[in-house]
């Protein structure tokens, strides 16, 4: 058991199991990356804040970039859009509202990590980060399908998932406008995403499916039962 100095104060390092120690380092890194720009956070700062040596940090994660990627994975492993429980009498709009509230809260709590991830992808300089975010987008589309009660339909029609992937791309873009540039408020982002995804589900998806089935242009949209969905299976 050794000692480390953090901010002028001496802290005692406590021996922990490897998995526990790794998780501790990751939690500290995630917090620092969420509060400060990536470039301003050093491996030494992370090690000091976690109460470990720089060598132990490198043992578990290698480089700062690898530690950052692990922090992003950890953040994105959380449910990308929480799926509210089905409540009798509750419509899709209320479910979308609850799901979006949960997702926007997650992003706001992890603001710095999210902005840095999007900036790095925007620059085109990190294929591994792009892959992590793309996998998260697929999980987000699964959640959206569940929230909207469209999972069975999406399983049969690729165009439904394609449309919702397009929506997820827009969702990422507007959260960047909100969190990085301050051009929108959280309430405005919520309104835009809620109205867009409801319009997609109620008006656009039925027509996409109808086109795939060969229905003539202008044919009325099928009754998709969106106001009273049954649990997706």
Notes on the structure:
The protein has 233 residues and is mostly helical. The protein is built from ten helices and two strands, in the order ββαααααααααα. Strand 1 (3-6) and strand 2 form a beta hairpin. Helix 2 (43-50) crosses helix 3 (54-61) and helix 7 crosses helix 9 (158-181). The radius of gyration is 22 Å and the shape is elongated. The N and C termini lie far apart (51 Å).
Summed up:
The chain is mainly alpha-helical and 233 residues long. Helices cover 67% and strands 3% of the residues.
Terminal CA distance:
51 Å
How large is the radius of gyration?
22 Å
Find the count of extended strands (DSSP E, 2+ residues): 2
Order of helices and strands: EEHHHHHHHHHH
Percent range for helical residues? 55-70%
- Strand portion: under 5%
- Helical segment tally? 10
Content-based structural category: mainly alpha
Indicate the mean pLDDT.
82
Characterize the quaternary organization of these chains.
Answer: single chain
The rough form would be described as elongated
**What kind of sheet is the major sheet?**
2 strands, antiparallel
Low-confidence stretches: 4-11, 216-233
> What strand line-up does the widest sheet have?
1-2
């Amino acid at each position: 058991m050794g000692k480390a100095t953090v901010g002028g104060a001496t802290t005692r390092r406590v021996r922990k199991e490897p998995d526990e120690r790794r998780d501790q380092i990751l939690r500290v890194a995630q917090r620092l990356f969420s509060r400060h720009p990536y470039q301003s956070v050093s491996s030494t700062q992370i090690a000091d804040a976690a109460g470990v040596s720089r060598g132990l940090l490198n043992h578990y994660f290698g480089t700062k970039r690898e530690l950052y990627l692990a922090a992003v994975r950890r953040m994105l492993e959380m449910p990308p859009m929480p799926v509210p429980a089905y409540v009798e009498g509750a419509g899709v709009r209320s479910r979308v509202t609850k799901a979006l509230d949960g997702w926007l809260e997650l992003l706001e709590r992890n603001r710095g990590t999210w902005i840095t991830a999007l900036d790095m992808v925007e620059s085109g300089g990190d294929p591994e980060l792009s892959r992590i975010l793309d996998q998260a987008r697929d999980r987000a589309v699964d959640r959206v399908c569940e929230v909207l009660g469209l999972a069975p339909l999406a399983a049969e029609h690729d165009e439904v998932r394609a449309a919702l992937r397009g929506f997820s791309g827009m969702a990422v873009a507007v959260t960047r406008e909100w969190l990085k540039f301050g051009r929108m408020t959280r309430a405005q982002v919520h309104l835009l995403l809620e109205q867009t995804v409801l319009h997609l589900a109620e008006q656009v998806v039925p027509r996409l499916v109808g086109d795939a089935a060969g229905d003539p242009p202008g044919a009325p949209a099928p009754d998709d039962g969106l106001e009273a969905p049954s649990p997706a299976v």
